[in-house]
Amino acid sequence: MPSTHPWEMFHLADGSPQEGVDKVRPEILESWRRSRFSGVDPHELSISREQIDTDSAFVRVGAPVLLNMADLLVGTSTSLALTDPTGVVTWRWESEPTIARQLDRTEVEIGSSLDELAAGTNGIGIAVAERRAVTVIGAEHYKEPWHQWACAATPVVHPVTRRICGAVNVACRAEDANHLLLVVLRSLGDGIRSALRDTATTREHRLVDAHTRFRHAAHAPVIALDRHTLIVNDAAAALELDRPALWDAVLAAGPSGASVSVTSEYIGTVYPVTDHTLADGAVLVLHRRPASVSGNTPAAPQLDLENRLTPLERAERQVIADVLVANGNNKKAAAAELGISRATLYQRLRRYGLG
Q1: What are residue 267's phi and psi, to 5 degrees?
Q2: Which of 78, 246, 328, 343 has its CA 20 to 30 A from that of 239?
Q3: Are 313 and 306 in contact (CB under 8 A)?
Q4: CA-CA distance, 233 to 212, in Å (whole number)?
Q5: CA-CA distance, 49 to 208, in Å (whole number)?
Q6: Residues 72, 76, 81: CA angle, nearest 5 degrees
Q7: Rounded distance, CA 219 to CA 338, Å?
Q8: Local confidence pLDDT in tens for the 355 residues of the chain
Q9: CA 271 to chain centre
Q10: In sequence order, what are the residues at sequence separation of 6 or more whose Cβ sits closer than 8 angstroms to the Cβ of residue 117?
């Protein structure tokens, strides 16, 4: 007699509309479909291994938080883990040796890559892909050897930089799964975020404060960065940025408000966090590379005016100038794109000497 288990029905259907999967949670079914489309083998493990930093800043901050909870979990057949932002396991703890051996046999080890596109439906993979907490229990896993496990995972967003540091995962045997998985997960996630906030340096806080000021003043992609940190607003989040290369370009440009190439589409004006030095990092206000337009274009800033403006005012002036160029000097269209009235735009034009 053919099996009616949803996981088996899904794979027997081989891409055709499936009967018997209506009870599968929608987010799990969508992940199964992505896994199939990516060519993940549902029967074999073959988990890829990556070279990782087991002493990363995230591990140094997160592991003590998890170990504080560990004493309460001894004897509960539970595992705790941390991953990097891509889903590679960087740290693991088990409540008992048998759990450690079972995890090793199912290739959930330090260095294992649990990215959904390569490893199929699993808690860590979905959490880092969709940036949300998720539970995957038993046969909800795409790979059959993982059906013995239940896991709850959540990404950890740095409270200062707002970037994903990694993920935390709580796992147990599938038959032992209950609502406490999510309770423990929330507690651990909150604890790690609090610890990250406490360990953030004064320099990081200054960088975030500067990013916030420019983000509110400029209707444009805004980046704040230094040698170790990159902060972006929503408008810049989709850009593929190479922080080390971008920081080298900023250092080469210096703290004088020069422009640097960011992508093939954008250039950015450099504004140091602290005037006249890049020691505390810089903010880049991005604008599209100007297209050639006929007619009048905004006048270049005069040196005395440039010296009188604050960094925020220089950023606003540059954004207005770029929007005017992009709109062929059409004031009505520029005001609409900037989200301000034409009266306000004309005030800004007079104030900033843009004609």
Answers
A1: -120, 160
A2: 328
A3: no
A4: 9
A5: 35
A6: 75
A7: 7
A8: 355 689 998 988 765 556 667 789 999 999 999 999 999 999 999 999 999 888 898 999 999 999 999 888 888 899 999 999 999 999 999 999 999 999 999 999 999 999 999 999 999 999 999 999 999 999 999 999 999 999 999 999 988 877 899 999 999 999 999 888 999 999 999 999 999 988 888 888 889 889 988 888 777 899 999 988 888 888 888 888 888 899 999 999 888 878 898 988 899 999 999 988 998 999 999 988 866 433 344 444 444 555 567 777 777 787 888 788 777 778 888 888 887 888 788 878 877 777 6
A9: 24
A10: 34, 35, 38, 40, 125, 129
Beta bridge partners of 260: 268
Reduce the secondary structure of 205-231 to three states and give it as a string.
HHHHHHHHHHHHHCCCCEEEECCCCEE
Answer whether 143's CB lies under 8 Å from 186's CB. Answer: no
Q: What six digits make up the tokens of 53?
A: 């930093």
Q: Write down the pLDDT at residue 301.
A: 40
Other C-beta atoms lying within 10 Å of the C-beta of residue 25: 13
Which residue, among 154, 115, 122, 116, has the nearest Cα to 137 in the 3D structure?
122
Query: CATH: 3.30.450.20, 3.90.1150.10, 3.30.565.10, 3.30.450.40. Which one for 6-199?
Result: 3.30.450.40
Q: Count how many Cα atoms sit within 13 Å of the Cα of residue 314 in the half-sphere of its side chain.
A: 24
Tokens of 309: 């403006």
Distance, CA of 192 to CA of 201 (rounded, Å): 16
Written as one letter, the residue type at 9 is: M
Residues 153 and 65: their CA atoms lie apart, in Å, by: 15
Domain residue ranges of the chain, discontinuous segments joined by +: 6-199, 202-351
- Cα separation, 153 vs 161, in Å, equals 21
Of 311, 313, 326, 323, the residue nearest 353 (C-alpha):
313
pTM of the model: 0.68
Structure tokens at 316: 């606003």
Q: Work out the angle between the directed axes of helices 311-326 and 202-217 (0-180°, nearest 10).
A: 40
Which residue type sits at 234?
D
How would you class 161 by CB atoms within 10 Å of its CB: exposed for 0-12, middle for 13-18, buried for 19 or more? buried
